[in-house]
Amino acid sequence: MRFAPFALLVALLATPALAAPCGGDFAGFVAAMKDEARAAGMADADIDSFFRGVRQDNRVLKADRSQGVFRKTFLEFSQSLISKNRISNGAANAERYAEVFERAASDYGVSRGILLAFWAFETDFGAVQGDFNTRNALVTLANDCRRPELFQPQVLAAIKLHAQGSFDPDTTTGAWAGEIGMVQMLPKDILERGVDGDGDGRISLKTSVPDAILSGAHMLESLGWRANEPWLQEVTLPESFDWALTGLDHARPVQDWAGMGVVARQGALASGLAAAVLLPQGRKGPAFLAYPNFNVLFEWNKSSVYVTTAAYFATRLEGAKAYNAGNPDPALSLEQMKALQQKLAARGHDVGKIDGILGAATRAAVQKEQTRLGLPADAWPTPELLNAL
């Protein structure tokens, strides 16, 4: 199941000025991309071979604009993705590839739970890797004006992979956003962070589990993953807790949280680290401590509900028990969420696009208004808040 790519948002880092203008005639755009590739020093034969037969894929554009699954709550999303079958398959793969996961931990400091969780969510452990022609998907998105600065460099990277003999433009398939293989990496990241885990002299994320797992671990290390540290831990909070202190932008030393009565639901709190109290569905739902490694996962996917679910699933795969779901206040409907975002924007809050998705900016605005209105400031929007605004 694919939502947004492992490396899709990593590539939003600074890129060179674009030579190919987005939008307009597709054939003209392809010609401009060929010029850009030549300017980058690529051979005409490789460029022509790569673009031969390229076409615009409207299915890609449709997929890019319809990711409504992220409007689900954490409980809905996690319960839809985490099944007994995925947990048992995760355990089986952890045992089957124990040596590979040990290498990931020793070489890159990345725990097996995180790698298993993303392997499961991205492609169901390699079973569903996507059937979009990767070359066409990348060129389509590079031509589209939503994020050309992200995808044009990916096209150039794919040409380089093609020149190396590891990318067939006609037969390579993957996700709609151009990611390839079991952990779904973009071409530029394969070039820069791909690992030949099985020692066969090539990097194949589609067919080699060692290549895929170790490449994913290398990617996370490069993004700032801290070895031998946790990422998420379920906790219980006292009824007297100050809800305004919750949220990822309110991290403080773990010992401070312990002094306020925060208790690990299983095991002990991680000493010597900073953490934030995360309430994905408000004070009446599950509660977690999010450690620094949790924030690294947002370089994999910008969706809060996806990252929280993946991080939680990773803890389950390493022995944590199922969360205490609690009894959260009902979520707002799509129309109510849009109305709330409009009211928040009218009060001067930057909530980004009015899309009905409870993202980080909307949560921050909700918490500020809850504080102003004297409501429990747990960043979970309710009809009471909507009416008060």
TrEMBL record:
The keyword Signal applies. One of its GO terms (molecular function) is peptidoglycan lytic transglycosylase activity. Coiled coil: none annotated. GO terms for biological process: peptidoglycan catabolic process. Residues 335-389 form the Peptidoglycan binding-like domain. SUPFAM superfamilies: Lysozyme-like, PGBD-like. Residues 1-19 form the signal peptide. The keyword Transcription regulation does not apply. Keywords: Signal. PANTHER family: LYTIC MUREIN TRANSGLYCOSYLASE, MEMBRANE-BOUND LYTIC MUREIN TRANSGLYCOSYLASE B. This is Lytic murein transglycosylase. It comes from Rhodobacter ferrooxidans.
